[in-house]
Design brief:
Elements: E1 10-19, H1 29-39, E2 63-75, E3 80-87, H2 91-108, E4 113-116, H3 123-133, E5 154-156, H4 157-162, H5 172-178, H6 193-198, H7 203-224, E6 235-237
Length: about 240
């Protein structure tokens, strides 16, 4: 499959999500009740729905997206890599801007492909669901309804690493480590994002973290394809913080 893909046709992406509200107490009673039911699936007997509310961000029905970072290979020999992020407290606005970029990318790249780590289980469906919740039209590249497997233009670096071993989960941090790629987790990790967003109000730190994940995903895919890596001096971010 990878033999038929050109790296310049790939848009690499990663998202950061947080719970819908800063605390369980701020949720309306109906959502509180539904979170109580949902969280029974994983919380221990002595924990309440409030105790595990920090995990709500991983569920698209109880969380929201605060940052989508994307990366594109702009030139070859050597590669030049450009990063851009859509972020903020207005989820509908950032999703609309991201959707516009997707549409433009699809028009200029007829073989456009999206790539994320664990994207098939998390990033891609999360984005699509939040677009529906926000009353937005899902871009064609993300809408898999009725498509045949070979028509789906979504790559997942974790899925590719499984080689059919569906009981295996490999984090991006572990994968970059075994492949000798700089870790994107040298400052924060996903479990810290909600606290940084709600308690520190430091979206810049989250955006920087998200962009490092995107760069790592691109480097992983290039290794899979046995292609040269991306040098540090060839990376640029066009995000305005």
């Amino acid at each position: 499959m990878l033999d038929n893909i050109k790296v310049e046709d790939v848009m690499f992406l990663d998202i950061e999500t947080v719970p819908e509200s800063s605390s369980y107490e701020l949720l309306n009673p109906r959502i509180q009740n539904l979170w109580d039911k949902k969280s029974r699936q994983f919380r221990s007997g002595d924990q309440t729905a409030d105790d595990v509310y920090e995990r709500a961000g991983i569920y698209s029905e109880f969380g929201k997206i605060i940052c989508i970072s994307v990366g594109l290979v702009m030139e070859k020999n050597p590669y030049r890599f450009r990063l851009k992020s859509f972020f903020g407290k207005d989820e509908k606005s950032l999703l609309s801007e991201f959707s516009g970029m997707l549409l433009k990318f699809g028009r200029t790249n007829r073989e456009a492909v999206l790539c994320a780590h664990n994207g098939k289980e998390f990033d891609f469906p999360y984005i699509a669901r939040r677009m529906i919740i926000n009353g937005l039209i899902i871009p064609e590249i993300l809408d898999n309804a009725g498509k045949k497997p070979w028509e789906i233009k979504l790559l997942d670096t974790m899925d590719l690493w499984k080689f059919g071993d569906y009981k295996n989960y490999t984090s991006l941090d572990l994968l970059t480590s075994v492949l000798g790629i700089p870790t994107p987790k040298d400052d924060i990790d996903g479990s810290m994002v909600a606290g940084i967003f709600y308690n520190e109000d430091n979206i810049q730190r989250i955006v920087h973290y998200c962009e490092k994940d995107v760069l790592a995903i691109a480097r992983v895919l290039l290794r899979y394809m046995n292609l040269p890596g991306i040098d540090e001096d060839k990376i640029e971010s066009v995000t305005i913080l």
